[in-house]
Here is the input.
Amino acid sequence: MLRPHYLPSDPASRTEYGAGHRVQCDLWFPPAVVPLGAGQAGSPPVLVMTSGYSRMRWAVMIASRQAPDLIAGHWQLLQNIGAVPRELVWDNESAVGCWRRGKATLTGEFETFRGSLGIGVHLCRPRDPEAKGLVERNNGYFETSFLPGRTFTGHQDFNTQLADWLVLANARHSRRIGCAPTARWATDRAAMLAMPPTAPAVGWSVRVRLPRDYYVRIASNDYSVDPVVVGRFVEVAADLTTVTITCGGVVVGRHRRCWARHQTITDPAHREAAKRLAHHAAAARDQATSTGRPTGAEVVVERRDLSVYDALFGLTKPIGPTGTRVDGEVA
Here is the structure.
């Protein structure tokens, strides 16, 4: 056995990142209680992005880890960045994709989002946390440098405090690259792709016929709609902050997104409109009753003599104009 002094050199390679190329992504679940409204509290996930070249960090708390909310979080951060990295690095997050039979497969929602941006997505192999070690270390950095001593009044307050802190964190000297991330950011951003000319469809999107109770459901919560469109199809779109309902391109409902669960959110104007419509319908029924005119439920329609069909199919012998059957028998 050779002594250590005589062993051959065994250098370790350093991972190099090109400007504008890779951005590592991860979900951070902060050990902090955030009020969600309606007396509920929780710890929603935080989408974290870290640039491989400049080490710039971006983060935003999202409502859930479901695909509509996760993709909406991506788009919000990309809008803040003002450019699109050429490749996103993810692990096997269920809303992003997974490895199956030795092949990386994206979910349908994330594949559509990736295609609309014209970028690539690299899925790390299972049990390979070092593949996105930059963002993993940042999660720990957030817990030790951002969270201590802070309290939050809600998810919006959390995002405001986090955004303010990230401005300071990105300006701090990084030993690994020998400078602050902001010093490399101009070169990094210049090498990224431009934002798409048309914004991709992100968030929740459903099309339903508005029921008589004039509410639609998104992520376990019910939101009121103008009852004047009861019975018609409406389109419901929800991002991280707003729920918008339209009918034929006309907005018939808009609410602030509720992050609590199993809540009913009612616009007072919709409640009043429902009362007026119900009052008018009752008055119409009373008037029809007093004048003897049939209401909608009492309209008299013509009744068909079903014996005509029996005669048509030969089930009975037709009756002549004199009351005798065609075979001469008296009817």
User: Anything to note?
Assistant: Residues 204-268 form one domain.
